[in-house]
Design brief:
50% helix, alpha/beta, six-stranded antiparallel sheet, Hypothetical protein af1432
Length: 504
Amino acid sequence: MKNNVLLISKNQLLFEQLKTRMDLTQYTLTQTNVSDIMQKSFLLSPFYIFVDLDDLSEQMIQVIKTINDLDFIPVLYIGELSSAKRMAHSLENELILSVNEFILQSNLLLKQGLQFKNQYDKVSQAYDTMDALSTDTKSIMAHYLEHDTTMPAKLYNDIINSIFMDNPLLNNKPQYIWILIKNKDLYRAHLYDRARPNDQYVHKNICEVPINHSFGFNVFAENGFKVNMFESHLSDIDSTSKTLPEEMLNQMPAIENFAGYGLDQIVVIGCNYTEFVSSYETSILKSATVTLDLLENIQTKIAEVEGAFNYTLDALARAAEASDDSTGQHIRRVNEYSKFIAMALGLESNFVKEISNSAQMHDVGKIYVDHNILRKKGPLSEDEFQEMKLHTIYGERIVGASDYLKMASEIALNHHEKFDGSGYPNHKRGEEIPLSARIVSLADIYDALRSPRSYKPGFSHEEAYNIIVNGDGRVEPHHFDPNILEVFKNNHLVFKKIFERESL
């Protein structure tokens, strides 16, 4: 691609003189006037603007300043100094050459201008990329907090593509990107690759890199590093230093250059850039690393809070089940059944995660029920049964109205409702019953049938399956959401495995 130069002049002779001095295989000179400067500048993206002093006006100077406010372009004023005196106040900081001086120095000036513009573009691309990343932090944060924490590679993939591929202003992009996460005495290294220049990055592989074999990321990473293997440009690491760990080199066909940045727990490295690497590439990787490190730290703190919160839920659920199941195995199994059903229904990962923690709260209201009723070996009287049914209402009160516990609250209240409307406490039917409660209803009944209680023995899997699918008078198939019942029919052996695994 040729490099465009813009000449603002009405003088055709000057235009021809300049053309004869330029290497037209490398540069393209376009002549324009003041009325077309903005349009030509936008269309051609010149790296240099030459201005004929004989045509200079205050309007032209203001237009040029406007252009440079948007995208700085070097400007050279050509003509006799006497022509510039009338606007000396506007040109006191500008470069002015006579036509003869310019013709003598034109090749050097063009080379210098092109070099400056290339470096300026690199700076602009780096800052635009960092600015875009900062601007998108809110959406990146929201996306991160919603993602499945068991699949960090996908989130890293999304962030990499938002930095490098969704930014049309960035030209120098790496073929490969490594994200290394420190884990004790290892780095867990994620490799991302793009098949063609305009393709999105795709997660390719994971390898483990011993920290003591990693060429000293802890030394170089904190200040950033860059290496040009086959270029005359300066590198931060001398040619005798080890380039990258063997575990990483084995994943790439060749290594031409690379740049990176790291913090205590994360190192991000770009390899095989289309052009030589410089401090600008390191700056972009620094922004990426800082963003990822921030997100990882937030996720760690959230996980700690969630862990403590879920531990509290588990303790409360165990207390509620103490009369029936002192081991807590029932609530663990109901969580697992419910999680499996939600996954089999193709529900969102957030729903799956939430129900796997909230299902255990289904009988929390039993804390308020007389333990003599809970432990009674024979059938309950009508009054006792009415008291037992109140555990659904008690459960909703205990859980409360917190948005964070909304699913746990609706499960506690509604898990004894039946799809045909014959359940309690409010005789809801069909989709009036929250989906979470419809799921837990089947999970709870399957485990209740399997589990020995003070008033009954535990049934085998085959007996429990037959009761749920064919009915026995107390439990009937029309009590369940048909889609959930279908999941049970098709996957009942999974329920059997969960019961056996969580009963050990």
